[in-house]
Amino acid sequence: MSEDIDGTERRSPCPRLLVRPLLLFSGAALVIGFVASRTHAQPYETTFFRLFFSDRLHMKAWLTTAALLLGLGQLLTAARIYGKLRFPPEGHLYPLLHRWSGRAAILLTLPAAYHCVFKLGFGTYDARAFIHSLLGASFYGAFFAKVLIVRTSGYPIWALPMVGVVLFAILMALWLTSAFWLFGALGVSL
Fold first, then answer.
1. Cβ neighbours of residue 42 under 8 Å, at least 6 residues apart?
2. How many whole angstroms separate alpha carbon 143 and alpha carbon 163?
3. Separation CA 143–CA 21 (nearest Å)
4. What is Dmax (Cα atoms) for the chain?
5. Rounded to whole angstroms, how far apart are CA atoms 13 and 153?
6. Residue 15: cis peptide before it, omega within 30 degrees of 0
7. Residue-wise pLDDT tens for the chain (190 aa)?
8. Residue 119 is inside which H or E element, if any?
9. Helix 93-114 / helix 127-151 crossing angle, nearest 10 deg
């Protein structure tokens, strides 16, 4: 038996358990991709919301940038929790910070995902849009797989960090194909 992050014991890993998060990942990605592919791209005619940003594209870019920064914090706090990095203070601060920054990051991605899936649809007009659409469809699949692994016992100790790294890598690639591209094309502005 091995210990979980919180010190609770875990059973020996069962390889069949790894099929469940993989099925959840692929199922969610396929459903999101299917819904997005059925959306007819609409120009932004009516304002749904854009907060204080100049337009929805900048809102999406900045919310995704904030989610990416929180994702970097997720990597650092996870490394601290697993003992790969040592920095003060000791105690339960890092698991709490990890959980809440993850929740905030996911909440920040929701308005961008809404606009991408239900307003813009699955982009196939160029390679960047196509890759971005594939990544966007898989992001929430990876998130659901991570939640399943967090909430279920019996997974190998490496499964949770691995899916966390995959989730962050997808978020980074999403940011590169959206916010980074937008800031490069139109400049950094609100």
1. 119, 120
2. 8
3. 10
4. 57
5. 9
6. no
7. 344 555 455 545 566 788 888 888 888 888 888 887 887 766 655 555 556 667 778 888 888 999 999 999 999 999 998 888 887 877 788 889 999 999 999 999 998 888 878 777 788 888 888 898 899 889 999 999 999 998 988 888 888 999 999 999 999 999 999 889 888 887 766 6
8. none
9. 140
